[in-house]
Write a structure and sequence with these properties.
98 residues, mainly alpha, 4 helices, 0% strand
Length: 98
């Protein structure tokens, strides 16, 4: 049975929409490893662009954006779990019918 998270849906979605490429929502949701991966991707593509490795920078940027978009969509649809395995539910979402 799916269990709802104590974390705020609104805060998680806002963090993901605004700062998703950095991974702040991951730290808020206690998914620290994914948060560090997001930060690593961001630092990676910025470094690549600054150092002239444009192709690698574009690859890392596209990967970072795709991951951030995926997480944001999963959060919006109520299908994303926090670090404790609980679902971040949108207001009014029922989990008992799964």
């Amino acid at each position: 049975m799916k269990v709802p998270s104590e974390k705020s849906y609104v805060v998680a979605v806002c963090l993901s929409a605004v700062f998703g490429f950095i991974g702040l929502q991951q730290f808020y949701l206690k998914r620290n490893l994914q948060g560090f991966i997001d930060i690593g991707l961001t630092i990676g593509w910025i470094y690549c662009f600054v150092s002239g490795k444009i192709l690698l920078g574009v690859f890392l940027l596209v990967t970072d954006v795709a991951h951030s978009l995926t997480v944001t969509i999963l959060l919006l649809t109520g299908n994303y779990q926090d670090g404790d395995g609980k679902y971040v539910c949108y207001p009014g979402q029922r989990l008992d019918h799964y």
